[in-house]
Structure formats: C-alpha cells, structure tokens
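Anyone able to model this chain together with zinc ion?
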Amino acid sequence: MGGRGANSGDLGGGNASSLNSEKAGDIWNYRHNENNEQFVDNINQTVREMAESYDGLMNTINDIYMAKVKDNPTVMAFWDIDHGELGINTRYGNIEKMASAYDDCVKKGYHPGRGNKTAEQAVIAHELGHSLTSVAMQKMRSNNFDDVSKKIMKEAQNILNKGLKKKKYPGTRKIATKISEYATSSNAECIAEATADVYCNGSKAKAESKAVVQALKGFLK
Ligand SMILES: [Zn+2]
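re: yes, here you go
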C-alpha cells in the first residue's frame, strides 16, 4: 500500500487505461462459434441487467469486443475511458478459463466473491463500474476521471460515517480494505470492485460496497 495515500487514509488516483491492446473481433462474431455462445450470453445478460438498474449506462459504451492484450497477461478485461470501449481478453475467452482465473483471485482476497454469477459476469460488472464512473463524469461535466472517482468515494465515506460520533472510516482506504485487495489500488478500482460485489452478491454484498454504489448512483441522476 504505502505512498501518499497511506498517510491521509485516502485512496489515490490512477488506473490501467494505458493498456497495450487491440481489438481481436466483434463479440457477436465471437458468439458464432457455438462453444462461445453461453460465454457471450452471460456477458450480454450482465450489460442488460445493469442497464436496467443504473441510469444512463449505455450512454458511454460504444463497443464491447474481444481483445488481444499485450504485455499484461493477467488482465481479464478493461474499460477504455477515452473511446468508451469494453474489451475482454481473448486469453480468458471462455467460461472455464475466466472462472479459473477469477476464482484464484477471490481465494487470495484480490477480488470480491461472485455469489451465483459466472466469472465473466463478475468481470463485466467490474468494468461497467468504470463505465458508470464515465457516466457520472458526463453528468458532472467533468473531463477528469480520477477527480470524479475521488468525489464518489468521498461521498461513500460520508454515507458510512453518517450519524456516528466516532468516525468509523477516517479515510476512503478503510472502505477499500473491506471490499478487496484490488479495491485498495485506487478510487476508480474501489468503485469498480464495489459495483461487482453488489451485482454478484446483492443484499449479501459488503456494507462498504453498498455505500459506494449508493454514492455512485447519486452522481448518475
Ligand atoms: Zn478496473
């Protein structure tokens, strides 16, 4: 952890948007192989369900595709903020490979559990958490993704501390540590991890994840 964030008890900025990747194929094209049908349908189900529960989700998504990711073999999927594109790493392009990679991370506390959802659904819900932060950016007429992420997390902190005499959450870092290890890497990743937790686990999601999603939703209006 370390760094400046550790002193203030707050998370820092930054995200992995400078990924070296290229589009490998359209997701519908990918579905034309019958081995991939269920995988793609699971992804589309998540997009559809989340579009129903979050205002304006589809406003920022221009494309969802299979991608070749170079240099960084552990990335399962990514959100390209600049182009509004959601890429899924071909390396994890089927139900078994995605589940094996994701569940390894859950065991280590690196990602939240996926409840009764599939791994590709958990991964897509995470990426859509980033897409929703882009929606919040539009609503706030901001062009600063990190700044908007920070505002959402600060609001989540307010929600969690509300009514408490002794502030249980001195900074946003403590919120992230309750959600997952990856959530501690930045404000943006904490929002994405909380979104995945709430999508996968519903009422059983962490209280901290629910507060982050409540804060996020507040910025989508
Ligand atoms: Zn992320």
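Residues 126, 130, 189, 192 surround zinc ion (CB under 6 Å).
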